[in-house]
């Protein structure tokens, strides 16, 4: 009898060993991935890569571990006042956490920007009056004193708040929605055209786009514009112009002009905005990208990144050299760099660029067949033909850089733009 019991125990032990090992290995892998993504030390990240290699982790395993979210904690429901870093300072923002919040589920976020004289708290309260939120959204609203969101410091503040919210709560990064009223609506336009890949949809209200030439960047971002016809602070013509430009581009835009509304927050429209938000998820891996930038500070759009600009980008049109050879910059519009990139069938990638000397393409299984060679042309000239190798480091580095576990790219190509000769 004892003999048979020993045999049974031995068999149970043998069967259970691989399962236990697999579970421990997975936990170890997850911890290593989290350590890599949270590390500010290049040396530590190299050490983590070595440990992943020692663990015998395959690319697909690491990819799976990246997709597993951090262990978020439960949060008290209600409105929380929080702080986010802005350089050496900290700025205030308010976050509404619904009573139904659970950390093992990802949550959509509505990021709202107030107007001049407003506050983050006021924006959160305005949206909570909607009966359509049904406790399905986390509402986040920063407070910025002047309310002038289209400058460098408030831009960095908005991004910092979004990063902090991702750190504290289990955010669905494919369902982040940006809205704003008045100057906050100006900020919606400004931030969205600079960072289109962050948002699933945007809603500028009673606003004017400060960078109309960059609306081309919103190819993948649905837009819902609302403006009062009787607005004397921001004339309705500003909204009509943005809508007209987006319609001519063939983009996804809805325009609602309220005939009796002056310059005020459209409280009666929040229900339909939230319902509309629910219908959209971010397009993270579009096969076509159109991108224009007037500054080397903004080089990235989806899977494209400009790594070297021409000398005139960010200056003004009509730049010429005087008799001494110095650049003369008369009044005019900023010179922009542009990219039109398309992934076609059979792993063919076609790029048309201007104002660009070199660029990087981030690629992966969602965009191309990684088992086959890829052929890349720039301005009609073939610049690369060959197979790409997947890299754990590339994948981890792009996730870390973008603070986004959904943004998975397996490899990248460094490309020089051929001369016109």
UniProtKB/TrEMBL annotation:
InterPro entries: AB_hydrolase_fold (IPR029058), Plant_Biomass_Hydrol_Est (IPR050955), PLipase/COase/thioEstase (IPR003140). The keyword Signal applies. SUPFAM superfamilies: alpha/beta-Hydrolases. Residues 165-275 form the Phospholipase/carboxylesterase/thioesterase domain. Pfam families: Abhydrolase_2. The keyword Lyase does not apply. Keywords: Hydrolase, Signal. This is Phospholipase/carboxylesterase/thioesterase domain-containing protein.
């Amino acid at each position: 009898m004892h003999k048979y019991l020993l045999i049974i125990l031995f068999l149970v032990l043998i069967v259970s060993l691989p399962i236990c090992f697999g579970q421990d290995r997975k936990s170890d892998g997850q911890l290593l991935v989290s350590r890599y993504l949270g590390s500010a030390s290049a040396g530590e990240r190299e050490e983590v890569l070595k440990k992943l290699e020692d663990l015998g982790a395959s690319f697909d395993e690491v990819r799976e571990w990246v997709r597993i979210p951090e262990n978020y904690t439960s949060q008290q429901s209600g409105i929380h006042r929080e702080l986010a870093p802005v350089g050496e300072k900290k700025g205030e923002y308010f976050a509404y956490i619904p009573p139904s919040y659970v950390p093992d589920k990802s949550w959509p976020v509505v990021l709202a920007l107030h107007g001049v004289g407003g506050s983050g708290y006021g924006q959160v309260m305005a949206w909570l009056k909607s009966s359509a939120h049904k406790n399905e959204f986390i509402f986040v609203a920063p407070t910025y004193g002047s309310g002038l969101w289209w400058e460098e410091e408030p831009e960095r503040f908005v991004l910092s708040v979004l990063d902090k919210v991702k750190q504290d709560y289990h955010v669905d990064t494919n369902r982040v929605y940006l809205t704003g009223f008045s100057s906050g609506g100006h900020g919606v336009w400004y931030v969205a055209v600079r960072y289109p890949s962050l948002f699933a949809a945007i809603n500028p209200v009673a606003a004017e786009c400060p960078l109309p030439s960059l609306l081309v960047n919103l190819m993948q971002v649905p837009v819902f514009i609302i403006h009062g016809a009787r607005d004397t602070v921001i004339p309705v013509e500003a909204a009509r112009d943005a809508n007209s430009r987006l319609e001519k581009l063939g983009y996804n835009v809805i325009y609602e002009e309220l005939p009796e509304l002056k310059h005020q927050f459209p409280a009666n429209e929040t229900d339909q905005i939230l319902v509309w938000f629910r219908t959209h998820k971010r397009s993270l891996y579009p096969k076509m990208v159109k991108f224009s930038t007037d500054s080397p500070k903004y080089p990235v759009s989806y899977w494209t990144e400009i790594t070297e600009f021409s000398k005139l980008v960010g200056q003004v049109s009509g730049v010429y050299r005087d008799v001494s050879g110095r650049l003369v910059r008369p009044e005019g519009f900023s010179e922009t760099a542009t990219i039109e990139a398309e992934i076609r069938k059979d792993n063919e990638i076609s790029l048309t660029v201007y104002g660009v000397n070199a660029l990087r393409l981030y690629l992966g299984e969602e965009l191309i067949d990684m088992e086959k060679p890829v052929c890349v042309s720039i301005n009609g000239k073939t610049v690369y033909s060959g197979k790409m190798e997947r890299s754990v480091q590339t994948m981890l580095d792009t996730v870390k850089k973008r603070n986004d576990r959904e943004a998975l790219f397996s490899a990248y190509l460094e490309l020089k733009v051929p001369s016109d000769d």
